[in-house]
Amino acid sequence: MTGPFSARIRDGKKIVEYLGNRQYKKIHNVSARAFSKKILKERLDDLVTNKHYYHLHKIDNSIFLAATEYFHKLGAEWCNLPLTTLMISSPGEVYAGKKLDYTTDTLPIEISWFNNHKRIFLTESSQFYLELRLLTKDVNKVFSIYNSFRKEKADFSHLAEFQHIEFEGKMDFNNNVKTAISFLKYITKYLIRNNSDDLFYYLTKKEIKLLAKTFDNENIIELPLKEALKILYSETKNTAYKKFSLKNFGSWEEIKLTEILKGHVIITDFPVDEIPFYHNTSKRDQDGDLVAQNADVILSGYREVIGSGVRISDSVVLAEKARAFNLPLKDYEPYLKTRRFKHYQKTAGFGFGWQRYVQWLLRLPYIWDATHIPRGQYLPKP
């Protein structure tokens, strides 16, 4: 099954074209429409009058049921976790060897906390706290379902607040990736069995039938980022892709790559200094570049829906990496301390973007229609 988007070049400009579904017509350039106050103002009436939100409600409910059922069968246990923290999960990515400032170049949402002089953050991810839970004796796999927050303006495929299903377990890289794909397959088949009428509101019967096999092995291609960039250069002749960096690997590139390779794509081996500090260094690649032991799952005709990786287990290496990323070590001390416990075991995990999956599944043009009450850069309404 193809996704909702196609990456095109028109008049020398990269555009993302929306391909339509049973409810929405094609859109020439989906990025041309911005998230707005008008969308928020009209949402309450839309919730009452638009059948879309009934079917979305049913889909959301089944995703929750399928996710908890999947993790229960896997032996993973749910965790009650905080949404406030001093430790954000994706600080200080570095481009061209430049240290980024912890407070101005990262995108957490800050809040005041009583009379404390220091401001705190809303969580970007529950990963740190899932890792902490795995220090408990005989707890080997855990998961959480919470809201996450990113201080980025909403666009066609991003919300400032979104639902995040996250997993962490005492397992290696390959088993973690297999678990992530198995999770996608499980919830998709659950929806086909239990929500066929809701799916049919958006998709044709042929598209629903194709969903049943969409996450079979033959529809998934795995390759390192460096190879992905080479493919994009070969296709476009854009010299920006000759540089081994995520700087020029955005929504257009993710969509285009799935179109070229004709399937879902798992991208591995990101440059270690451009992704969160806790990722384990896998190796030096054939060119001598240090790469991380991580993988992003990009769905066909869409974007990254799952980010995954193995965590650094060595306490000294983790502390050195934190310093290199310009982090306040005092704030991260609880996380750094986890590696110093004798019974600590290396873990891996993944995060699943709920609304992104729904947007892909239902072939929706805008992610703010993949949730009942979206949050972006404007004051909450309703």
From TrEMBL:
Sorted alphabetically, which Pfam families does this protein's record hold? tRNA-synt_2
Pinpoint the Aminoacyl-transfer RNA synthetases class-II family profile domain residues: 141-380
Q: Does the keyword Ion transport apply?
A: no
Chain coiled-coil ranges: none
Instruction: List the Gene3D superfamilies hit by this protein, alphabetically.
Output: Bira Bifunctional Protein, Domain 2
**What are the GO BP annotations of this UniProt entry?**
asparaginyl-tRNA aminoacylation
One GO MF term on file is: aminoacyl-tRNA ligase activity
Cite the entry's keywords alphabetically.
Answer: Aminoacyl-tRNA synthetase, ATP-binding, Ligase, Nucleotide-binding, Protein biosynthesis
Stored InterPro entries = Aa-tRNA-synt_II (IPR004364), aa-tRNA-synth_II (IPR006195), aa-tRNA-synth_II/BPL/LPL (IPR045864)
Can you name this protein?
A: Asparagine-tRNA ligase
Q: Which organism is the protein's source?
A: Candidatus Giovannonibacteria bacterium GW2011_GWA1_44_25
